[in-house]
Design a protein that fits this description.
The complex is a heterodimer of chains A (150) and B (215). Chain A has one domain. Chain A is 44% helix and 27% strand. Chain A has 4 helices and 3 strands. In chain A, strands 1-2-3 form a 3-stranded antiparallel sheet. Chain B has one domain: Bacterial phosphonate metabolism protein PhnH (Rossmann fold), CATH 3.40.50.11310. Chain B is 26% helix and 15% strand. In chain B, the strands form 2 sheets. In chain B, strands 1-8-7-4-3-2 form a 6-stranded mixed sheet. In chain B, helix 2 crosses helix 3. The longest helix of chain B is centred in the first third of the chain and has 17 residues. The chains are: A alpha+beta (150), B alpha/beta (215).
């Protein structure tokens, strides 16, 4: 159970990086003291994944459709591996996000890159809330009138 | 989802560093070029084709074997290789870069064998079936050298007259096994001989006529 916390943190990073734009990934990388040399194990490659949905949000699973995604894997000289998976076809972002994943594993949680990631997460959260607020404002409640019987 | 997480390589000093090795640096063009060479090798049996360098190669695999697998193997092609390779660098590399599952010889789409490892014999592999003869095993046989060995004459489709090859390091009794394999036509396994970065194709249609009657 001891290894769960770094694992959970890394999963959080994957999620943030998957949603981030190239410029945002670059902004976090700019907080790294230096980008060490690395080997690209798996060049950025684009493929499709099946996106699953649930009927009504909580019902049976069904295949919604395929989505384009890009992934990449790199290795730092000390052996740390970095991965990235994200929707879309941005190969430059996939490569930089994989480097960032590796660097984040080597940085203590209070380091500058972690702080930048935290800011990015906050930013994404606000954008999401803003979007759902706008969507909620257009919500229409449907109901059925019961015909009175006498 | 949890199963997948369990398979994620763990970062940490306690574990031996997980090193999956490298793949193609330019996947599209390198796999296209390799595919063209493999096609040529199998359509003109006995001709030697160079797939170019590949380094660093996972332990136990020759450069051409690695290129061949990166080009042809994927999650739909089960691969068999000797236990020593399967449990070592080669197995990890194959899983990471090709996503190919491992299989027993009779279920494998590709099989790898090296001189020095025990050879299960050609009839241990999948010859395909009458409806789908193409579902047979393609055996990648890593040998010492494609030249400089005992001469063998080949004939069959893709060969004008006969073509002479001299691979060195074939498993003992190979000619007899190959004759049995060609008799299975349209079933049977196909072989790609590999030495270093070079390959030589032996599809099931290629016959090795018996040499002069033995004294």
């Amino acid at each position: 159970m001891q290894s769960n916390q770094p694992m959970a943190r890394r999963q959080g990073h994957f999620a943030i990086l998957a949603r981030a734009a190239l410029a945002e990934v670059e902004a976090v990388l700019a907080d790294a003291p230096a980008i060490p040399p690395f080997t690209v194990l798996k060049q950025p490659e684009t493929g499709t994944i099946m996106v699953e949905g649930r009927a009504g949000g909580g019902g049976r699973r069904f295949n919604l459709g395929e989505a384009t995604m890009t992934r990449c894997a790199i290795r730092l000289e000390d052996g740390t591996l970095g991965f990235s998976y994200a929707l879309g076809r941005d190969m430059a972002k996939a490569r930089k996000a994989a480097v960032l994943d590796a660097l984040l594993q080597n940085e203590p949680p209070e380091g500058p890159m972690h702080r930048a990631m935290h800011r990015l997460a906050e930013h994404q959260k606000q954008a999401r809330e803003e979007a759902s607020r706008k969507a909620a404002a257009t919500k229409v409640e449907f109901f059925t009138m019961v015909r009175g019987e006498g | 989802m949890h199963e997948q997480n369990a398979r994620l390589p763990k970062a940490g000093p306690a574990e031996a560093p997980f090193n999956p090795g490298i793949g193609f640096s330019d996947p599209v063009f390198q796999s296209q070029a390799a595919f063209r060479s493999i096609l040529a090798a199998l359509s003109e049996p006995g001709t030697i084709h160079d797939l170019g360098p590949f380094a660093p190669c996972p332990a136990g695999l020759q450069p051409a074997t690695a290129i061949l697998l990166l080009t042809l193997a994927d999650y739909e092609t089960p691969v068999w290789m000797p236990e020593a390779l399967e449990s070592g660098e080669a197995g990890i590399w194959l899983r990471f870069h090709c996503g190919a599952p491992s299989a027993t010889p009779d279920k494998a789409a590709f099989a790898i064998n090296t001189a020095g490892h025990s050879f299960p014999g050609l009839n241990a592999f999948n010859p395909g079936n009458e409806l789908y003869p193409d579902r047979s095993t393609t055996l990648i046989l890593q040998i010492d050298n494609l030249t400089g060995g005992e001469t063998l004459d080949l004939e069959g489709p893709g060969i004008p007259g006969t073509r002479r090859i001299a691979p060195r390091g074939l498993p003992a009794g190979f000619a007899v096994e190959w004759a049995r394999n060609t008799r299975l036509y349209p079933l049977g396994v196909d072989i790609v001989l590999v030495a270093g970065s070079r390959i030589l194709g032996l599809p099931r249609t290629t016959r090795m006529p018996a040499p002069d009657p033995r004294p």
